[in-house]
Specification:
heterotrimer; A mainly alpha; B mainly alpha; C alpha/beta; B: mainly alpha; two-stranded antiparallel sheet; 25 helices; 74% helix; C: alpha/beta; D-Maltodextrin-Binding Protein, domain 2; 2 domains; six-stranded mixed beta sheet; five-stranded mixed beta sheet; 11 helices
C-alpha cells in the first residue's frame, strides 16, 4: 500500500459524503429517506474504494506535460466574469467581449491589427447569428443588461 | 391502416411538404446546438403553429421532434458535447471516431440509425397502438421504480475501468437530484444558497457536466494542433454504411425494441433509452473493450433507440392524452390548442388530421435522414476548427442554451459550478455519464418509491407491492443481471488491459 | 493594451444596438408573461391562447411573450417575480389560485397573496372527483361509506401538494368526517393516468381533463358552488349534502407584482379582461375544453381576498 493519487479520490469521496450529511435538514423524515440512502451508498462505495486501494499493487504514475495551470485558471476566471457581467451589460455584448478577449489573450501568434480585426469580425458574426436566431426569430428572452 | 392511405394525398399538399422540409432542417439545427434540447425546440415552435392548419402545425412539431432527437448526434460526435441526454451514448463512440478523421462516417451511421429506429417507432404507432397503449398503463409506481433501478444498474457497465468511481458518481448524481424542493412533500433539501431553490434541472446539469470540462480540456490542449483531416466527402460512404447495418441486425432490433418500450412508458425517462441500449449491445458484443474508442456499432445502438422513442412516445399521447416523454407533453399542448382531444375521437372525428400527422411522421424520418446526411458531408471540417476559436464559441453556446431552458441565470451558475467540479472530478478519473444518469433517474426512483409506499400502505403492504407481479419480477431480474454483468465486465476489462497492454495498465490506475 | 482598447471600442459599438428603455407610453416593447409551470401543461397552453390577440391595436399593441419558469409547484417562478421581476410593467405573471395562497401559507415562500396585483381572471377550473371506470364505487355516498369503513385506506391523488385538488381532498375529509390518503402526483395528466390505470383508487382532477377523458373514468361530483355546463349531469358536493365550496377551484389570470406604477396597472386592468373576452379566445378555449370565467380587476381582487381567507382557515387546522 503505497501513496498514490488514488487516496485523494478516497478523501474526496468522504468529504462529499460529509458535506451532504451536514446539510440534511428537512423536517419531514420521509423527505430525507432517499438522500440518506444515497449517503449510505456513497459511504459504502468509499469504503470499498479503501479496500481496493489496499489490495492494489503500486501503480506507475503517468508522467505528463506540464499542466497549464495559469491558462486554465485564467479561463475559469474569464468565464465566471462573463457570466456575472451578462446581467449588467447584456448577453450579446458580454459574449462578444468574452470571445474577443479570451481568444486574443491566449493566442500564440502576434497581435497584429489584421488578426484582431478578423477575430472581431468572427465574434461579431457569431453574436449576430445568435441574435438573429434567438431574439429575432424565436423571441426568446435573453439576459438583458444596459446594452443588449 | 388503409385509412392512412386515403389521407396520403392530403399529406402531399404544398403546405405540409414545406413544413416537413423546414421542420426537419430546423430540428436538426436545434438538436445540433448543445443545450437546445428537443423539448425546448418543440416548445419554441408551438406559437408558430397557432396560425396554421391543425395537421400542418402538428406535422411541424412532430418533424422538429424527430429531427432534433437525431440532430443531437451532431454535437455529440463533433464537439464531444451531447445535445440532449439521449446523445450521451452516441458521444462515447462518435467523438473518438471524429478524432480519427471518421466524422462523416460516424454521422452517416447516426442518421441512418435514427432513420431505422424512427421508422420502427412510427410503425409501432401505426400498427400496434391499441395493445401497446394498454401495456403502457400496466406500469405503476412499483414498475417505474424498478425500471429506474434497471437504468441505474447500467452505470456499472458504463464505467469500465473505473467501476467504483462510476458508481459513486451515479449515487452522487442521485443525491444532487434531490436538491431543491422535494416534489412529494414540498420541503427544501440542501438549499444552502438561493440559487438552488429550483433544484438542478437536467439540461443545465448535462451541459455543465459535459461542456465545461470539454471547454477546459480544449484550453489545456490549446496549442496541440491535430493534423487536419481531409474534410472532403468520402465517396461510397452511403453504400458502406448500408452494408454495416446489414451486419448489425441484432443491434438495430434491440435498439428499436428498447426504444419503443421505454418511450411508451410515461415517466420512465425515455432519454436514457440510448444509454441502456448502448450498454446492452456492448455487453453482447464480442469485443466490449472496443466500445468507447470508436466502435461504430455503439453509435447505431444509441441512435436507433433514441429515435424509436419518438414514435413510441406518441402512442399513449394520442390514445390516452398521456405523454410518453417531456417533449410529447409539449406536443399535447399543441394538440389541445387546436382543439384536438386525445382519445378515440382523434381517430374518428379528426381522423384526417391524425392520419395526415402520422403519415407526416413517417415521411419525416426519411427527410431527417436525408438532410442529416447532407449536413454531414463536410462535417469533418468542424473538427479542423482550432481549439482557440472552439472553446469560447462552445462556452457562449452552452451559456445561452442553459439560460433558455428555464429563463434562469441561476441555471447558468449551477451549470458552471457543476462543470468546474466535474472537471476536477474527471482529472481524478470520475466519468461524467453516470452522474447524469443519476440526476435523471434519481427523481424517478425516489418519487415512485415514495408513491408506491404510500399506496402500498393502504393496500397490500410494501413488500408485496414491490416484489410481486410479473412485470416487477422481470424488471428486478433484468436489473440484477445488468448489475452483475457490469461488475463482471469491469473485472474482465481490467484483466484484459493488464495482459494485453502493460503500459495501459499503468494508466488504469483507478477503480 | 490593444486588446483592451479594442474591447472598449467594441462595447461602444454595441451600445448602438441598445433598445431605448423607459419610454413614456406603456407598452412600447413586448411584455413577458411568466408562466410558472412547464410548457404543455394546462396553465401554459391556456395562457398562450388568452394572450394570442395581445399584439392587436385594440389591446396592447405589443405581443405577450410566454416565459416558462417551472419548479416547486409554481413557487420558483413567483419567488422570482417578487425578487427579480422588473417593476416597470413589462413583466406579468399568470397566477393560479389556490396554489398561490396555499404555498405562501404553508411554505416559506417569498411572496404572499398581497404581493400581487391581479389584473383579470380568465379561467376557473373546478376540481372533480373521479374514480376508474371499472371501480365498484359509483356514487359519492358509496365513496364516503367506503372511506368510513376503511380509514386511511382510500387513496386519492391530485396534481401536487397544496394545489386545488389537495384542497378539495382536505375539504372532503372535513365535510364527511373521513380520513383519506392523498397521493401527490407530478401533474394533472400524471394524476389522471394513475386513476385511469387503477394505480390509485380515486382522484381529484381538473374539470377540463376529466371532461376530455370522460369515457375513461367515472366522474362522481364537482367541488364547486354550481354544476358546470361542460358536465351538466355531475352533481356538486353541496347538492349531495357535503359542505364543500369553491375554495379548491383553480382560478387563473394575469397579475403584476406590487410596485408597478398605478397608471400602468390601471391601463392593463382595462385591456386584459377585454382580451380575455375576445371571440377568438373564447372559441379556442371552448375548443380545448378549458372552462372560462372572466373576472375584471375588482372582482379578481375580491376573489383573491376571499380565497385567501378560506384557505387560511382550512390550512391552519392540523392537516396532513
Amino acid at each position: 500500500m503505497r501513496f498514490s493519487g488514488e487516496w485523494i479520490v478516497v478523501i474526496i469521496m468522504f468529504i462529499v459524503c460529509a458535506f451532504f450529511y451536514a446539510l440534511i435538514s428537512a423536517a419531514d423524515p420521509r423527505s430525507t429517506q432517499f438522500p440518506l440512502l444515497m449517503l449510505v451508498l456513497m459511504l459504502s462505495i468509499g469504503a470499498l474504494k479503501i479496500i481496493a486501494q489496499i489490495l492494489e499493487k503500486k501503480q506507475l504514475t503517468n508522467g505528463g506535460e506540464r499542466y497549464p495551470f495559469f491558462r486554465v485558471s485564467f479561463i475559469i476566471a474569464a468565464i465566471a466574469l462573463y457570466i456575472v457581467a451578462m446581467d449588467y451589460i447584456g448577453f450579446y455584448t458580454a459574449s462578444f467581449v468574452f470571445f474577443l478577449a479570451s481568444t486574443l489573450a491566449l493566442q500564440n501568434v502576434p497581435h497584429t491589427p489584421r488578426v484582431i480585426a478578423m477575430r472581431a469580425g468572427l465574434g461579431l458574426t457569431l453574436c449576430a447569428s445568435l441574435y438573429l436566431l434567438f431574439t429575432v426569430l424565436l423571441k426568446v428572452q435573453i439576459p438583458k443588461g444596459i446594452f443588449m | 391502416m388503409l385509412e392512412m392511405l386515403e389521407h396520403f394525398n392530403q399529406l402531399l399538399s404544398f403546405g405540409n411538404m414545406a413544413v416537413l422540409l423546414l421542420g426537419s432542417v430546423a430540428g436538426i439545427f436545434f438538436g445540433a446546438m448543445p443545450g437546445l434540447s428537443p423539448t425546448m425546440a418543440v416548445a419554441l415552435l408551438v406559437p408558430f403553429t397557432f396560425y396554421m392548419q391543425p395537421a400542418t402545425g402538428l406535422i411541424l412539431l412532430g418533424c422538429v421532434y424527430t429531427s432534433a432527437v437525431a440532430g443531437g448526434a451532431i454535437s455529440a460526435v463533433l464537439i464531444n458535447i451531447p445535445g440532449a441526454p439521449a446523445s450521451i451514448a452516441t458521444m462515447l463512440d462518435g467523438n473518438p471516431m471524429a478524432k480519427q478523421g471518421r466524422a462523416q462516417e460516424a454521422l452517416y451511421i447516426a442518421f441512418f440509425a435514427s432513420l431505422l429506429g424512427g421508422l420502427a417507432g412510427v410503425l409501432a404507432l401505426i400498427f400496434l397502438t391499441p395493445p401497446l397503449a394498454a401495456f403502457a398503463m400496466k406500469f405503476g409506481p412499483s414498475e417505474l421504480f424498478w425500471i429506474s433501478v434497471f437504468g441505474i444498474s447500467i452505470i456499472a457497465g458504463l464505467s469500465s475501468g473505473a467501476l467504483l468511481k462510476g458508481l459513486f458518481g451515479g449515487a452522487l448524481g442521485m443525491m444532487i437530484s434531490t436538491i431543491g424542493y422535494s416534489p412529494m412533500f414540498g420541503e427544501p433539501r440542501f438549499v444552502f444558497h438561493d440559487v438552488l431553490l429550483s433544484g438542478i434541472a437536467i439540461v443545465p446539469a448535462l451541459i455543465g457536466l459535459f461542456a465545461v470540462p470539454q471547454v477546459l480540456t480544449l484550453v489545456e490542449e490549446l496549442y496541440i494542433v491535430a493534423t487536419k483531416a481531409d474534410y472532403r466527402p468520402r465517396p461510397g460512404l452511403i453504400a458502406s454504411t448500408v452494408a454495416m447495418f446489414l451486419r448489425w441486425k441484432r443491434t438495430v432490433t434491440l435498439g428499436s425494441l428498447l426504444g419503443i418500450t421505454i418511450g411508451i412508458i410515461p415517466g420512465a425517462g425515455g432519454q436514457v433509452a440510448g444509454l441502456i441500449t448502448y450498454d446492452q449491445v456492448k455487453k453482447l458484443s464480442k469485443d466490449p473493450c472496443s466500445f468507447g474508442k470508436g466502435n461504430p456499432e455503439g453509435i447505431s445502438a444509441s441512435e436507433t433507440a433514441n429515435s424509436a422513442t419518438v414514435g413510441a412516445a406518441l402512442i399513449p399521447l394520442l390514445t390516452l392524452g398521456i405523454p410518453g416523454s417531456p417533449t410529447a407533453a409539449v406536443l399535447l399542448g399543441g394538440l389541445l390548442i387546436h382543439g384536438l382531444f386525445p382519445g378515440p375521437d382523434l381517430f374518428t372525428k379528426y381522423a384526417d388530421v391524425t392520419y395526415t400527422f402520422i403519415g407526416g411522421m413517417f415521411i419525416a424520418q426519411f427527410i431527417m435522414c436525408g438532410m442529416g446526411i447532407l449536413f454531414s458531408r463536410y462535417s469533418q471540417a468542424v473538427m479542423n476548427i482550432p481549439n482557440l476559436i472552439m472553446f469560447p464559441a462552445v462556452t457562449i453556446l452552452a451559456v445561452i442554451g442553459t439560460y433558455c431552458v428555464q429563463n434562469s441565470m441561476d441555471d447558468v451558475v449551477i451549470m458552471f459550478v457543476l462543470g468546474l467540479l466535474m472537471y476536477l472530478g474527471q482529472k481524478l478519473g470520475f466519468p461524467s455519464a453516470p452522474v447524469v444518469l443519476g440526476i435523471i433517474l434519481g427523481p424517478i426512483a425516489e418519487e415512485n418509491f415514495l408513491r408506491g409506499m404510500m399506496i402500498a400502505q393502504t393496500d397490500v403492504g410494501a413488500f408485496s407491492y414491490f416484489f410481486t407481479g410479473g412485470l416487477n419480477l422481470l424488471l428486478i431480474a433484468l436489473s440484477a443481471i445488468s448489475l452483475l454483468w457490469g461488475v463482471i465486465g469491469d473485472l474482465q476489462y481490467r484483466r484484459r488491459m493488464k495482459y494485453a497492454h502493460p503500459a495501459g495498465a499503468a494508466q488504469l490506475s483507478s477503480t | 493594451m490593444r486588446t483592451l482598447f479594442l474591447s472598449i471600442f467594441a462595447l461602444l459599438c454595441c451600445a448602438l444596438f441598445t433598445i431605448p428603455a423607459g419610454a413614456a407610453d406603456w407598452p412600447d416593447a413586448p411584455i413577458s408573461l411568466i408562466v410558472c409551470y412547464t410548457p404543455g401543461g394546462a396553465t401554459d397552453f391556456q395562457a398562450r391562447i388568452v394572450s394570442m390577440p395581445a399584439g392587436g391595436e385594440k389591446y396592447f399593441g405589443q405581443p405577450i411573450v410566454i416565459v416558462n419558469k417551472p419548479g416547486a409547484g409554481g413557487m420558483t417562478g413567483w419567488n422570482w417575480m417578487i425578487e427579480r421581476g422588473g417593476m416597470d410593467g413589462y413583466t406579468m405573471t399568470a397566477y393560479n389560485m389556490p396554489h398561490l395562497a396555499a404555498q405562501s401559507i404553508v411554505n416559506k415562500a417569498k411572496f404572499t397573496v398581497e404581493s400581487f396585483e391581479p389584473l383579470a381572471n380568465w379561467g376557473a377550473d373546478p376540481a372533480v372527483l373521479i374514480v376508474p371506470a371499472d371501480s365498484p364505487i359509483t356514487s359519492v355516498k358509496e365513496y364516503v361509506d367506503y372511506a368510513k369503513a376503511n380509514p386511511a385506506k382510500l387513496t386519492v391523488n391530485g396534481a401536487g401538494l397544496y394545489v386545488g385538488h389537495h384542497i378539495a381532498a382536505l375539504q372532503l375529509e372535513q365535510a364527511a368526517g373521513v380520513k383519506l390518503t392523498y397521493i401527490p402526483e407530478k401533474g394533472g395528466t400524471d394524476a389522471f393516468q394513475n386513476v385511469y390505470a387503477g394505480t390509485v383508487m380515486s382522484g381529484f382532477n381538473n374539470l377540463a381533463d376529466a371532461y376530455r377523458g370522460k369515457e375513461r373514468v367515472r366522474i362522481l361530483a364537482i367541488a364547486d358552488l354550481n354544476r358546470h355546463e361542460f358536465l351538466p349531469d355531475v352533481p356538486t358536493f353541496k347538492e349531495l349534502g357535503y359542505d364543500i365550496d369553491d375554495t379548491s377551484v383553480n382560478y387563473r389570470g394575469f397579475a403584476f407584482a406590487k410596485g408597478v406604477p398605478q397608471n400602468i396597472i390601471d391601463k392593463a386592468a382595462a385591456i386584459v379582461p377585454a382580451m380575455f373576452t375576445d371571440p377568438m379566445v373564447t372559441a379556442k378555449m371552448k375548443e380545448s375544453g378549458s372552462p372560462v370565467k372572466v373576472l375584471n380587476r375588482e372582482e379578481a381582487k375580491k376573489m383573491f381576498a376571499s380565497q385567501k381567507e378560506k384557505l387560511e382557515k382550512l390550512l391552519s387546522k392540523p392537516a396532513k
